[in-house]
Amino acid sequence: MTSETPPPVDPTPVERRHRVAERAADEIQHRLAEPLRPGLYLVATPIGNLADITLRALVVMTRADRIYCEDTRQSLKLMQRFGIEQRLDNYHEHNAERERPRILAALAAGKIVALISDAGTPLISDPGYKLVRSAVGEGHAVHAIPGPSAVLAGLVESGLPTDEFHFAGFLPPKSGTRKNRIVELATIPGTIVLFEAPTRLGDCLADLAEVLGERPAVVARELTKLNETCHRGTLAELASWAQAATVKGECVILIGPGQALAVDDAAIEQVLLKALDAGSVRDAAAAVAERLGVPRRRVYDLAIELNEKKRAKDE
Ligand code: SAM
User: Is this prediction's pTM over 0.85?
Assistant: First the structure.
């Protein structure tokens, strides 16, 4: 009689899923038990889909001596979802000056301090930069726990070039200053990534279209959420769409690089006016030439003319 080994049986789909769940649970168990080095941890959290939390984010939030967040009510939802019971403290623009020395003292005492924002990666249009600068200055360890980021999620699904990009945060809310800022961004060679509130989206896109002209662009809305959408078109097309529709939810605007844009004199003068208020003709011309990527001589001549006009007006 021969005893044959039965052929291996392929796991069923349910068994496969159980295996993944078990391995993830093992991984986090193992990491929760490991010692965590003291220091400041910048922990990225989901931008809409709670399943985007990372294992390391859960470990750091569980092991931290202190967790600082922008809005405790907002962060509590995340903590409760994963059963994390650590105390939350606020760190936001209104109390940062007062709280920062306390956080630095905790770091000096060898504590583990985590900083999270309402959503996404801290410091990216969110509080934390000055804290990190001070922590680095005082020689404390600073660790990034990477994860969700509206900038990168929008960029990678936009279909626009990713080899070079420039994140410019939120543009100014008023059209005049916003257009000046857009002029400054016009010569950037890569994809431009912006944040914008849905209520300002139409007006912002209209200004972008006016200054930057025909460029491919994308509005990535409600990234990672069930009703995520990605609108693609030229800036002018997207401006018409956003001005006609009631756009709701959080948005990232992404603008593809244009043809090497000819910056006209009016655009240079617009930026020069502000620069001339702050410094001499020579300094203003040098700064504006560099910012707009145009020859210094041309800007200098325009600055002289502008300055003379200004002086004549003042007399
Ligand atoms: N630090 C965050 C990050 O790393 O994603 C960004 C914080 S900033 C205060 C908030 C802005 O990010 C929103 O106004 C919106 O422009 C963008 N944003 C955040 N979540 C988003 C989402 N799920 N979809 C699209 N844009 C989002």
Answer: no
